[in-house]
Structure formats: structure tokens, C-alpha cells
Fold this sequence. Notes:
The protein is mostly helical and 189 residues long. It has 6 helices and 2 strands. The longest helix is centred in the first third of the chain and has 33 residues, at 2-34.
Amino acid sequence: MSTALISSSRRPHRLVLWASALVLGAAVMTAQSAEAPQFSTDISIDEIMEAIVMPTADAIWKAVQVDLTAAGEVKTAPSSEEAWLALRHQAVTLASVTNLLLIPNLKIAKDPNSKKHGEGELPPVEIAKLHKAQMAAFAGHAKALHATAMKAIAAIDKRDLDGISDVGGEMDAVCEACHTQFWYPNQGK
């Protein structure tokens, strides 16, 4: 009888403790969700492309090649575990960098007002306008590049030379689709 009295008298205290824990947990979760991550935006999309995207994409494009020379066919492919691992690191870097491209408010170029651009290419200020107006399309291109880099990782893990070569072609198409929409949309018109 005394055991029943003790446990029934503790029930309100346990309820209060549980309720307090729930309220505290909810408050912490609300505070955490209210604090959006603060990204540094001092590196431009152009700099990310030049420093990370191009070198990693080039490593994948150049990993499997067949060159015709006067001496015959010269094949290039990873030939050691170290070479396969280095290629995999390049593909992982390429997949990862696509997330950087989605950081809000990145500048297009280090100098947004730069007048230096190739024939048929838009100046950075015009690219920035397109980027802002068509952010969902830009994100779609970044996600397509991510998916292609993931295919490269899978082909590398299988040591599939044809798969790596095929992914190189897909990667070229993905990059070109983004460039023709944002960088040089007027070329060929």
C-alpha cells in the first residue's frame, strides 16, 4: 500500500519533469532552426570554377584517353591504386563543390564590373542578372553536375574505363548546358 502511494505521488513530479524537458528541447530546436548558417561569400562563382571545377573536371576528362601517334595508339588510364585513389579524390571534390555553387548571394566574378570577357560572353554584371532571375535553373545545372560526378565516382570504384570515358562526355554536356544559358547565351545566334 505504501508503494502505491509513493509511486502515485511521484507521478505529478515526473510529468512536470517530462513536460519541462519537452519545452526546453522545443526551445533549443526552435533557436537552432531560427539561426540559418552564415556562409562566407567572398569567393566568386568564377573563382570556384577556375580553382576547383575546371581542374577536377580536367582530371576526369584526361584520365582515360586514346591518342593516335605515328608510333600507334597510346592509351592513358590509371595504372596503380594511388592513381585510382587520386582520380577518385578529384571526382569527390567535383561532387562536393557543386554545393558551394548553391550558396546564396555569391558574386559571379571577383570584380562584378569587369569589362574583360571573351567574344560572345556576357560581362559579369549581365551573368549576375541572369543568375538571379534564373536561380532554379542554375541550381538544376549544379545538381546535374553533382549527379554526373557521382557517376564518375561509381565508374572509378568499378575501375570501369569505358564508364569514366562516358561520364566525361556527360560532364561536358552538363557544363555546356549551363554555360550556354548563363555565360554565353548569345553565341551562335
